[in-house]
Automatic annotation (TrEMBL):
This is Phosphoinositide phospholipase C. One of its GO terms (biological process) is intracellular signal transduction. One of its GO terms (molecular function) is phosphatidylinositol-4,5-bisphosphate phospholipase C activity. Keywords: Calcium, Cytoplasm, Developmental protein, Fertilization, Hydrolase, Lipid degradation, Lipid metabolism, Nucleus, Transducer. It is an enzyme of class 3 (hydrolase). Residues 220-231 have a biased composition (Acidic residues).
Length: 536
């Protein structure tokens, strides 16, 4: 053991030794030692990270935030059911940003469903009631309700009434600080629920209207949407760019920057003032470009960017992307063609500092393993402080380049054995041909995997006793995933279990690695027995 003392050893003996005579002699039997090795004190995940330990007084934009996409769906995006369980399940897992698609319903009751599809419908007020009940079950830190609002102004007023009446004092409806030009911290927003939606006017104007009657008051919101390619080309030829880019500077020195910007056309959206004024620190604003955001975006404005566009931006403008996420909360969501509710790999967007990488929580697989593993950190609070190089205004970090001042970790893992590994579904006896794959996810230079040899016909107590070494250039962003498989040449290897966690959350020494099913359920007592060592 590391960092131990005689008093610590005595505590271990008192806690795990089953034989009184041995315990009184301040010794430990083999049985007691095995109990200790298989206990939570010897788990791979470092105990101190199971509670909130990070500084929670930074502004919201300095944190990765656990986020869900189309939270109400529990199956596919086209014909599957909408269910309250989607929200409850996500909240229990520590999710801190939920999505609610709102549409006009019958009898002046807004409904939640995936518009223009055959998915079933939920009453908006029923969704808010469930959220209110479970909002702070897993975390005390702020919850963001991201509204995709398609409702008419009268039903938007109903939504506002529901939010205020059901959520009560937990709903944030006013600024915390009169003069701040930065977002408040998770600590300052504890037990608060924030609404993310389109907003009319400034925060000061919102405060001036506080406690006034806003019934029937509707204003138009100018939203910009990208023009199609052919239309763009015509507009460029006609030199009408500035008509679509309201407020851009007209200096000749900036003409090159303007030429690089996509063209947008104005779209007018009607917003009920009652709902608009419930939006404080999470105003939804259309993303146009990094250049536009740098000049005009306000601190309380957040962007949603589709995965395809975000992927292009991260590959070709990684440093600009990081400087953008340094200042503004940015949400990434799956492309519309993922009708089966599949997910993208969230790691590439965490690498550029995106705070809200929204996944379909109902779909198991590698992306959700990474999501669940990353947010084990900091007490599973749903908030993780971003590394300093993603918070620095002068940062030159680029995930596609090896950092000049890198402080790499050399990680050594001795994979000793398996304990009661899950049986193969293709075998009536526990005789799977087991192997273990160890994968590193992080910046592209750190992505790698190694695997053990196959142990034939033994999933009960396979022994590998193999050693693997990984050199990780950016350990602050790296996750490690242990995957147990049953080798099958005909149909492909069968998944048996996995465990994912941040590299820097691993304990050193002899550790057992718990295993979880494809759906995230514990497979206890199944585990891997390892020896972990790393140096920087």
């Amino acid at each position: 053991m590391l960092n131990t003392s005689k008093s610590f050893a005595s505590e271990i003996i008192q806690k795990y030794e089953p034989i009184e005579e041995v315990k009184e002699a301040r010794q430990m039997s083999v049985e007691g030692f095995i109990r200790y090795l298989c206990s939570s004190d010897c788990q791979l995940f470092e105990n101190e990270y199971e509670k909130v330990y990070q500084d929670m007084t930074h502004p919201l934009n300095d944190y990765f935030i656990s986020s869900s996409h189309n939270t109400y769906l529990i199956s596919d995006q086209l014909v599957g059911p909408s269910d309250i369980w989607g929200y409850v399940s996500a909240l229990v897992k520590g999710c801190r940003c939920l999505e609610i698609d709102c549409w006009d319903g019958s009898q002046n009751e807004p409904v939640v469903y995936h518009g223009y599809t055959l998915t079933s419908k939920l009453l908006f007020k029923t969704v808010i009631q469930a959220i209110h009940k479970y909002a702070f079950i897993a975390s005390d830190y702020p919850l963001v309700l991201s509204l995709e609002n398609h409702c008419s102004p009268p039903q938007q007023e109903v939504m506002a009434d529901n939010l205020q009446f059901i959520l009560g004092d937990s709903l944030l409806s006013d600024m915390l600080d009169d003069f701040s030009d930065q977002l408040p911290s998770p600590e300052a927003l504890k037990f608060k629920i924030l609404v993310r939606n389109k907003k009319i006017g400034t925060l000061v104007e919102t405060r001036e209207r506080r406690n006034s009657d806003k019934h029937g008051q509707v204003q138009e919101y100018e939203e910009y949407e990208e023009a199609d390619k052919e239309e763009e080309e015509n507009k460029v030829k006609e030199s009408e760019t500035l008509a679509y880019l309201k407020g851009y500077p007209e200096k000749e020195t900036e003409s090159k920057n303007l030429a690089r910007l996509p063209l947008f056309r104005k779209k007018r959206v009607k917003v009920a003032l009652a709902l608009s004024d419930l939006v404080i620190y999470t105003k939804a604003e259309k993303f146009r470009s990094f250049y536009y955001s740098k000049l005009y975006q306000q601190f309380n404005e957040t962007n949603s960017i589709g995965e395809s566009e975000a992927r292009k931006l991260s590959k070709f403008s990684a440093n600009d992307f990081i400087l953008h996420t340094r200042k503004f909360v940015t949400r990434i969501y799956p492309r519309a063609t993922r009708a089966d509710s599949s997910n993208f790999n969230p790691q590439e967007f965490w690498n550029v500092g995106c705070q809200m990488v929204a996944l379909n929580f109902q779909t198991p697989g590698l992306p959700m393993d990474l999501q669940n593993g990353k947010f084990l950190d900091n007490g599973s609070s749903g908030y993780i402080l971003k590394p300093q190089f993603l918070r620095d205004f002068e940062t030159e970090f680029n995930p596609y380049e090896i950092p000049q001042n890198s402080n790499p970790v050399t990680l050594t893992i001795r994979l000793i054995s398996g304990v009661q590994l899950p049986p193969s579904s293709h075998s009536s006896s526990n005789k799977a041909d087991t192997l273990v794959i160890i994968e590193i996810f992080g910046v592209p230079y750190d992505q790698m995997k190694q695997q053990t040899r196959v142990i034939r016909r033994n999933a009960f107590s396979p022994r590998w006793n193999e050693t693997f070494t990984f050199v990780i250039q950016v350990p602050e962003l790296a996750l490690i995933r242990f995957v147990v498989e049953n080798q099958n040449f005909l149909t492909g290897n069968e998944f048996l279990g996995q465990y994912t966690l941040p590299v820097l959350c691993m304990s050193k020494g002899y550790r057992h690695v718990p295993l979880f099913s494809k759906f995230g359920q514990s497979l206890e007592p199944a585990s891997l027995f390892t020896y972990i060592w790393y140096v920087r």
